[in-house]
Protein 1
Amino acid sequence: MGTTGSRIRPEHRAMLVERLRPYASRIALFGSAARGALTPDSDIDVLLTLRPDDERPPLGLQWFALEEELHQLLGRPVELVTERALSRHMTSVATDLIVLYEDDK
């Protein structure tokens, strides 16, 4: 996993963790945000390992509301992706992954 810094400001990283932690046991950046290659048109790609349904608030349509809320907070589009949805592309994602938060196990 990549551990180099991104161009996302520390306070924005903290906002992502604060807002997404109730839903996810692991939160990570990937793509241009993780590589430090953001352009003015870049979105922020966030990979989530969701908590089990009985350990998190319900998501449903809240998923889209979270993306929009984070867009407003961070000033650029945010794409939330689950590990499950991305599993077949994980190898390419893992090379530039920056973990922002992970539950202690």
Note: Helices lie at 10-20, 32-35, 62-74, 83-86, 90-94.
Protein 2
Amino acid sequence: MMKPFLLTLALAVICSTATFGQTEKGSKMLGGTGNLGFSDGISVTVQPSIGFFVADNFAIGSALGLYYYNRDDIRQNGIAIQPFIRYYIGESMPIRPFVEASGGYMTSKTKYSYSGNSFEQKYNNGFFGAGVGAAYFLTNQVGLEAMLYYRTSEDRGLINYQGNSRLGISFGFQIYLPGSSAK
């Protein structure tokens, strides 16, 4: 009961502090994305991220991806490190489009169970992705975002190497913290 109150209070304090340009050099962004899927089993993905604005509108950062999937006969979990670069287009306004490029490495383990037999297989994937999106700023320091992305990877660990490419959409939020050089 106390945790939701403290979280709400913390967000209120962050949102009510003095406002600065969201994407100025020296600012930071903290946030992430997540999704929950039920189409063929249950899948959960959580991806916290941190970024630093090295120039106005231009951030570099990294995300840590955590993935879990469970179906009657398959259970999979994985972890990924995903450095990214992001550029925001336009001036300060409630909706800011951006472009992003990322790459990284994922390792995962899959356990298969059939007719009382089971085995595990490990996968190691390098991947690259790019996307276009928009951040909707609820305040100068809190934004909701959506991004349409394309990702390609090579799955190592399979008997035959195979590529995996997909188009997707992600939703998330960011908290923008002014840096010492933000005015």
Note: The chain has a mean pLDDT of 85.
Protein 3
Amino acid sequence: MFSATRANLENDNRTFLLSVFTGIISRHQRHKIGFHSLKLTSNHSKSCKNKTKSLFSFRSLSLSEMAGQSDPHISLFSPQEIEFMAEDELVEIVPNIRMDPLNFISGDFGPFFPQIPAKVPLWLAVALKKRGKCTIRPPQWMSIENLTHVLEGEREDQGAFQAVPFHYIEISRLLFDHARDDIPDIYMVRSLIEDIRDVRLHKVETNLEKFSATSAVKISHLSAMEVNVVRPFVVRSLQAFYKHDNPVVMADLDSASDRQPQVRQPQVPRNAQRQPLKRR
């Protein structure tokens, strides 16, 4: 009886490892985009609204419109790309199975024993959760007490940002989608995170409007999504400040444009007749 149970458990583990490996391949196929430069537009944001839910509904064009025309050389990741990077963050799970260590490029995780907490990447935690192999423990920063403290600090101090995890938006969205039953008071937690996101985004826009001529800007405690939104405007603003504060550079640029060779095509009179070609 014991040997039969152990054999069934080993077969179940092998089946699960195969499914995890298949999930890894499909995960990389879905994100086989090379992290090239993508630009968020209003139409793209609307098309991704159902997939990214309310936590990804950033008004990403507002800052770009403040900067004028967008620079095609400035990288702007899509929400899916940022979420893909956030899936490597470690979270704590409580397995309900016994399983050997898993060896990945990013490291080794396991062995896993029932009811003994273990830390794994978020994507692996989601894969285990989907198959009913574990429960996910929400991070400590997702507690109502901590979120309330962060929200109060964001509202009181308009000149600084509170310290939050770099991928707090992406992590919370994935947990809301795949581990709803593991988050106590999920509706209150979701509401607090959305309020924090809105207050921080408003502070970003307000502070960037107060930019003055400077060679460097220091903004602390921004999240990955907020950095992605701010990057085009900040880079273009600093470039404009640098050019306007250096007249020599502006003169060199103007003279360089004037020195560009222009190819003139010979003018042919309208009444001119074509001469027949002479055969040799």
Note: Residues 2-30 form the longest helix (29 residues).
